[in-house]
Amino acid sequence: MSDTDGKKTLGLRGGARPGNVKQSFSHGRTKNVVVETKRKRVVVPKTGAAKGGSGNPSLGDPAKRPAGITDAEMERRLKAVQAARSREVEEAAAREAEEKARAEDRERRRAEQEAKEQEERDREESLKAKAEEEERKKREAEAAAQAAAAPAPAATEQPQRAAPSSRPAAQDATARKKDRDADQRTTRTKGADDGRRSGKLTLNQALSGGEGGRQRSMAAMKRKQERARQKAMGGSVEREKVTRTVNLPEAIVVSELANRMAERVGDVVKSLMQMGMMVTQNQTIDADTAELIIEEFGHTVNRVSDADVEQVINEVQDKAEDLQPRPPVITIMGHVDHGKTSLLDAIRNAKVVAGEAGGITQHIGAYQVVTDTGAVLSFLDTPGHAAFTSMRSRGAQVTDIVVLVVAADDAVMPQTVEAINHAKAAKVPMIVAINKIDKPGANPDKVRTDLLQHEVIVEKMSGEVQDVEVSAINGDGLDDLLEAIALQSELLELKANPNRAAQGAVIEAQLDVGRGPVATVLIQNGTLRQGDIFVVGEQYGKVRALINDKGERIKEAGPSVPVEVLGLNGTPEAGDVLNVTSTEAQAREIAEYRSKAAKDKRAAAGAATTLEQLMANAKENENVSELPILVKADVQGSAEAIVQAMEKIGNDEVRVRVLHSGVGAITETDVGLAEASGAPIMGFNVRANASARNTANQKGVEIRYYSVIYDLVDDVKAAASGLLSNEIKENFIGYANIKEVFKVTGIGKVAGCLVTEGVARRSAGVRLLRDNVVVHEGTLKTLKRFKDEVSEVQSGQECGMAFDHYDDIREGDVIEIFEREEVTRTLA
Ligand SMILES: Nc1nc2c(ncn2[C@@H]2O[C@H](COP(=O)(O)OP(=O)(O)OP(=O)(O)O)[C@@H](O)[C@H]2O)c(=O)[nH]1
Fold first, then answer.
1. Do residues 21 and 35 make contact, with C-beta atoms less than 8 angstroms apart?
2. Chain segment 751-804, per-residue pLDDT in tens
3. Partner of 391 for a Cys bridge, out of 286, 314, 575, 710, CB 3.0 to 4.6 A?
4. How far apart, in Å, are the Cα atoms of 395 and each of 403, 630, 755?
5. Is 384 annotated for ligand binding?
6. Is 436 flagged in the annotation as binding?
7. Whether the Cβ atoms of residue 506 and residue 536 lie closer than 8 Å to each other
């Protein structure tokens, strides 16, 4: 840029006007500063220039022109600028015309399309109207025919009344539809125009920042453009509402509900809020509320039960012709020390170890033996009532035959009776094994007669129950026993269909260090194969390997075969039922449902009060202490009795919460649950298995064993009492009347009193009563008898008392003297 003379160097000095400014600093110092102000150059066209040259005023003063540019050059340049401008104007006009033509073309095409659609709609409607008309006529004709047959006025009236109303309704609908279409057309055209105008982003628009000088971001402009484009493309056309049938379980999470309706979560939440329910999308709502929402959104409700997921595994019904004979499953029961384990071992040793050349049998909870006559028998290697009942209580009745062991040198004992009852309750046939006949004092007949008292009439007593005399020690009678079992099983005609998806029951399960969760499953129906996908209790998996009772890997296991199953995702419990499913998703869904249901059940069992009550309690009494416990019992009846007794223990402050109650041995799962909740485990006539014992020791979980319910209840009561906060009890120890009030310097007001009742103690608490109303409660500052400070003043004596931090004492007031005592409370 050049200055006026075009020669001077750039800088402030040349074109600037200097000025002086005085600056003041602290301590009276000043400083003169020279300020230069740049003068603005103003170009004023000279009149003379207009006259000369080409007469173009914009040519300007040659003196002001950049050096070296001639008049001719200047004129040429200006002409070029003018030409460019006029070209721009022309181009703009052409563009506009083109755009207009394009818009008209688009409009025309849309109009054509709409006309076509309208035509189609009209045609459809006319067809429909025609059909309706025909239908009406048909009905009329029928009605007329009926009327002719039986001239009842009501019959003819109805179609006549229906006919006129149906036509206007149809016409109405058509008219409404036309109106709506017209509306849509106008809005769409308007939208398209707007879009063309506002949706286009020009450089000018972008730089000037749109309306009001507000600077818009490029993204905002793009969004706007996109919106406009969508609008122009038919965004204003109302989307047709899709009505869905929504499967509604007992409870559903809001977001899932929105998902199933294909609606926006925000809309669902809003609608819930309008109903007065302040929920978030992750909250669960009950089915009734969800139903209202579904209806509000115009969808159809299909109420389903969560348990429906289990239906897939109960669908298959076996046909009689598919059933094939299967081996019986036997459980050995009896009183302690009557020889159950010895008998099981004897059978196994006789038939398995001896039978298999060097065969190493492994304990998998069950084994199969083949009798001399070729019959296959499956024995459950978990003697005792616990295993039997735990299976039954979990819905898996695996046992077909019960072998009741009674020692010949003993008699029918309490657990023998219990075993009889279990077998009878399960409607399982019994075979009596009179054991220990090798013993000198053995008296098998006494056993037989004893059994009569319990309605077990053995064959020797002309009854139907088979009885076999055996000796587990020397093996006498074992074959007879096996034959008796085989015979019994023939009578039972046990059958299963090996050609279907397998179903079985877990006999034992544990977490194996090397192999992961392992379950011994007794197949009850179908055939389990390697690779099968299954659900078992709350777990699921895919069969990775099958191992039989001899420790061999097998490819498949048919009915009544016990196998170890590898490939589970967790450890199931004994008695859990295994079902093969077609897909993993199915298996997982069922397992998750069961796990949730079990958790809910546990929570419900523990919460004796409803949630509202619990919250009310918590408000009143900040902390309701809970004593969590786990109960495992030998039979369901005992477990239930204990749980009931536990629920009765407690009051508003303390409650016993039974986290879990079950039948059977204390397992690792129980220990895990107890550890998680800091609960002791109460075992009633059951013991912890070895792994559970180890885990409990490691994790410091207390396991207590009982055989008398009252002992258990007393212990829990004592423990719960420990949770009760001590009660503060007040004892009134004396009363005193204020006879006079003095003012003593240094002390303040002192009451001259007469102790009317009990004693006045310096350390005790005091209340000042005025007309039997407590006006102050506190402690004594001083207790004087005559001039001396004393610790105690007896009834009938006079004394001087002064309150700590309290002075408003009057003649005639009564002082109540009390002591506080902490009392340990116990639960009733
Ligand atoms: N003489 C003799 N002794 C036997 C016989 N059967 C078992 N016993 C003994 O009886 C005792 C108890 O046997 P177990 O097999 O442990 O009895 P159980 O019924 O399994 O006992 P629990 O597991 O405690 O319920 C052991 O000392 C055995 O050796 C038998 O047939 N003859």
1. yes
2. 999 999 899 998 888 989 888 788 888 888 889 888 888 999 999 999 999 988
3. 575
4. 21, 21, 76
5. yes
6. yes
7. yes
Taking CB atoms within 8 Å and a gap of at least 24, the contacts of 7-15 are: 12/36, 12/38, 15/39, 15/41
Identify each DSSP E strand in 425-530 by its residue range.
Answer: 430-435, 466-469, 495-496, 503-512, 516-525, 528-529
Instruction: Using alpha carbons, list the distances in angstroms from residue 758 to 18, 333, 810.
Output: 105, 71, 22
**Alpha-helix runs per DSSP H in 250-317:** 254-261, 265-274, 287-296, 311-314
Joined together, the tokens standing for residue 102 give 């394009």
Tell me which DSSP letter residue 498 carries: S
Strand 562-568 to 495-496 pairing: unpaired
Residue 335 labelled as part of a binding site: yes
What number does the ligand 1 atom closest to the CA of 474 have? 31
Name the residue with tokens 């008898």.
785
Q: What are phi and psi of 433, to 5 degrees?
A: -105, 110
Euclidean distance between CA atoms 579 and 601, whole angstroms: 22
Q: Give the DSSP letter of residue 39.
A: P
Task: Name the token pair of 199.
Answer: 């949706």
Where do we find the tokens 């849309």?
Answer: 110
385 lines ligand 1 (CB under 6 A): no
Q: Which protein residue has the closest C-alpha to ligand 1 atom 27?
A: 337
Q: What is the pLDDT of residue 504?
A: 92
Return the structure tokens found at 24. Answer: 């003041």
Ligand 1 contact, 336 CB (< 6 A): yes
Helices (H), 435-513: 444-452, 478-492
Phi/psi at 570 (5° precision): -160, 175
Task: Tell me what ipTM this predicted complex has.
Answer: 0.97
Is the CB–ligand 1 distance for residue 345 below 6 Å?
no
CA angle at residue 766 from 765 to 771, to 5 degrees? 155
Q: Is 349 in the pocket of ligand 1 (CB under 6 A)?
A: no
Q: Which of 359, 329, 346 minimizes the C-alpha distance to 525?
A: 329
Q: Which atom of ligand 1 is nearest to the CA of 338?
A: 19
* Spacing, Cα 824 to ligand 1 middle (Å): 50
Report the alpha-carbon distance of residue 163 to residue 133 in Å, rounded: 9
**Closest CA relative to residue 819, chosen from 775, 756, 762, 757:** 762
Does residue 415's CB lie within 6 angstroms of at least one atom of ligand 1? Answer: no
Q: Are 401 and 488 in contact (CB under 8 A)?
A: yes
The model's pLDDT over 421-433, given as tens digits with 9 standing for 90+, comes to 778 877 889 999 9
Give the nearest ligand 1 atom to 471 CA: 31
In the predicted model, what is the mean pLDDT of residues 73-87? 84
pTM of the model: 0.46
Quick one: tokens of 305? 């039960």
Region of 462 please: left (phi>0), alpha (psi -120 to 50) or beta. Answer: left
237 is in an annotated binding site: no
Residue 148, pLDDT above cutoff 80: no
Give 473's contacts (C-beta < 8 A, 6+ positions apart): 342, 346, 436, 438
Nearest CA to ligand 1 atom 30: 436
CA distance 82 to 79: 5
Q: Are 226 and 185 in contact (CB under 8 A)?
A: no
C-alpha to C-alpha distance for 216 and 201, rounded to whole angstroms? 12
Angle at 544 between CA 539 and CA 550, to 5 degrees: 105
Q: How many residues does the chain have?
A: 828
Helix (H/G/I), strand (E/B), else coil: 16: strand
Ligand 1 and 338: CB distance under 6 A: yes
Alpha-helix runs per DSSP H in 282-375: 287-296, 311-314, 340-348
Q: Is 435 in the pocket of ligand 1 (CB under 6 A)?
A: yes
Measure 12 CA to ligand 1 centroid, in angstroms: 120
